[in-house]
Specification:
Elements (H helix, E strand, L loop, with lengths): L7 E5 L2 H4 L26 E5 L5 E5 L9 E2 L15 H15 L3 E5 L2 H4 L10 H16 L3 E7 L5 H6 L8 H15 L6 E5 L4 H7 L5 H28 L4 E13 L4 H24 L6 H7 L8 H9 L4 E12 L7 E4 L2 E4 L5 E2 L5 E2 L1 H15 L3 E5 L9 E2 L5 E2 L3 H19 L4 E7 L19 E3 L11 E3 L1 H11 L7
Parallel strand pairs: 1-5, 1-17, 5-6, 6-7, 7-8, 8-9, 9-14, 14-17
Antiparallel strand pairs: 2-3, 2-4, 10-11, 12-13, 15-16, 18-19
Helix pairs in contact: 2-4, 6-8, 8-11, 12-13
The structure holds 6-O-phosphono-beta-D-galactopyranose.
Length: 491
């Protein structure tokens, strides 16, 4: 049997996409609270108010006009405000995860529940209590938490008043937050991730209208996060030697569309810019040689201190994690057949099929990615997001219970599990797998509820209606069987 004993099967969520209770018990706002819903063709918008009182909305990757401040406005729907109300349903949800046999549950802590603006001296006790209760509930069932410290939700005060991640001083605020949670949850948590899909910072600005200045800001933003991540790793090891800390990369397998040497080079550079740049710094503790070329392309000059470089060298991560949904084809040739997905645009690959949201379905790309990355870093790896966002239809099952017949989801997951198995046989030290959105939640990219990933259906609609009732889909029983057999029975 390929999957090693103790393999960490489970599921993943993020605070901003499932908790709801956005302004409850002292939580402060984050940018994700001012994001509207979108669709596959229309972007999520950030809503804002100008000093003169005029109001407006811009696509999320554009940023608000100079002087504007994010604001919750009348007439807009903000899906993350209530999400699936995990804040009040966590006991019921964790019981369902336990019923599936989860060994691990990946979740994130919302920074602004702990420090509402980020600058307080003392943490918000109600926020600390909430996560303690969640960890205790997981402990009851023997489920290991895998905790992401940052999943898209910097306190808004830091973003707007202090310059966000472009400001080197934000590192110290993150240090304080990291120290608080690492100290508070000692004994309840073993495995941590610092920044979710840290590499999306560059891909994200490229979705809009990137300028050299935007590239400079994005690379500086990343540098500051690298240093904060290295601090967190070092701190974690000091606070509890049993702690292990990983990086988290948006993992997209890139292929050249043609054998034209220009495409081969462009593809390699895409790997470097989008995937290796962050992984190398976080796994090796130093910038790779090609960083210079990337910076020079946009005349970027970064503020990097000697101390920063020393800190990076002292804080390489213990393991590598990534999300995997799709591959991407890279070409220098003109192509009308463009596809987008997970914050990246590429050419359409004629050998693949695509999801309803245009994401390439490519299980073999997962094996490709795992083998390539393991060879590069030789650190334990976890796939911490994978899954199919699809339309689900709630119907009455044979037992009279409401359910979803989601064979398409089972097929998708099965094919990916098969590829993980081959990668393990080929020598990859793969130690865990948490499928994305194990319970339906708000889509990060489009803000939709109807883009569903879960084994558990949540009765919540895009217009905000719904009872929040939870129902088991067919995939629930399938995954339970996969976990119980440690991946041997995936039929
Ligand atoms: C990743 C994020 C998740 C998640 C997932 C699916 O980018 O880490 O937060 O949402 O992709 O994407 P989407 O929600 O856009 O379907």
């Amino acid at each position: 049997m390929a999957f090693p004993e103790g393999f960490l099967w489970g599921g993943a969520t993020a605070a901003n996409q499932c908790e709801g209770a956005w302004d409850v018990d002292g939580r402060g706002p984050a940018e994700t609270d001012m994001l509207t819903g979108g669709t596959v063709n229309t972007p999520r918008m950030l809503t804002y108010r100008m000093p003169d009182g005029t109001e407006g909305a811009v696509p999320q990757w554009e940023g608000v006009p100079e002087g504007g401040r994010l604001a919750v406005l009348d007439g807009y729907l903000y899906p993350n405000h209530d999400a699936i109300d995990f804040y009040h349903h966590y006991k019921e949800d964790i019981a369902l995860f336990a019923e599936m046999g989860f060994k691990q549950y990946r979740m994130s802590i919302s920074w602004s529940r702990i420090y509402p603006t980020g600058i307080e001296d003392e943490p918000n006790q109600a926020g600390l209590d909430f996560y303690r209760n969640v960890f205790l509930e997981l402990q009851k069932y023997g489920i290991e938490p895998l905790v992401t410290m940052w999943h898209f939700d910097t306190p808004n005060y830091i973003e707007e008043e202090l310059g966000g991640w472009e400001n080197h001083d934000t590192i110290a605020l993150f240090d304080k937050y990291a120290r608080t949670i690492l100290t508070e949850y000692k004994g309840l948590v073993k495995n941590w991730l610092t920044f979710n899909e840290i590499n999306n910072t560059i891909a994200f600005i490229e979705m809009g209208h990137p300028t050299d200045e935007k590239y400079r800001a994005a690379y500086q933003h990343l540098h500051n996060k690298f240093v904060a991540s290295a601090h967190a790793v070092k701190m974690a090891h000091e606070i509890d030697p049993a702690y292990k800390v990983g990086c988290m990369i948006c993992g997209i397998a890139n292929y050249p569309l043609t054998p034209d040497p220009d495409d081969i080079l462009a593809n390699r550079y895409q790997w470097e810019k989008n995937i290796f740049y962050c992984g190398d710094v976080q796994c090796k503790g130093k910038y790779p040689t090609f960083a210079k070329r990337l910076w020079n392309e946009h005349g970027v000059e970064l503020e990097i201190t000697e101390q920063d470089l020393a800190d990076l060298a002292e804080g390489p991560v213990d393991f590598y994690t990534f999300s995997y949904y799709m591959s991407n084809a890279v070409t220098t040739h003109q192509t009308d057949d463009q596809v987008g997905g997970n914050f990246v645009m590429g050419a359409k690959n004629p050998y693949l099929t695509y999801s309803d949201w245009g994401w390439a379905l490519d299980p073999k790309g997962l094996r490709y990615y795992l083998e390539l990355i393991y060879d590069r870093y030789e650190k334990p790896i976890m796939v911490v997001e994978n899954g199919l966002g699809a339309f689900d239809e709630l119907v009455e099952g044979e037992d009279g219970q409401m359910t979803v017949h989601d064979d398409y989801r089972i097929d998708y997951l099965r094919e990916h599990v098969k590829e993980m198995e081959i990668a393990i046989e080929d020598g990859v030290d793969l130690v865990g797998y948490t499928t994305w959105g194990c319970i339906d939640l708000v889509s990060a990219g489009t803000g939709e509820m109807r883009k569903r990933y879960g084994f558990i259906y949540v009765d919540k609609n895009d217009d905000g209606t719904g009872t929040m009732a939870r129902y088991k889909k067919d995939s629930f029983a399938w995954y339970k069987k996969v976990i119980a057999s440690n991946g041997a029975d995936i039929a």
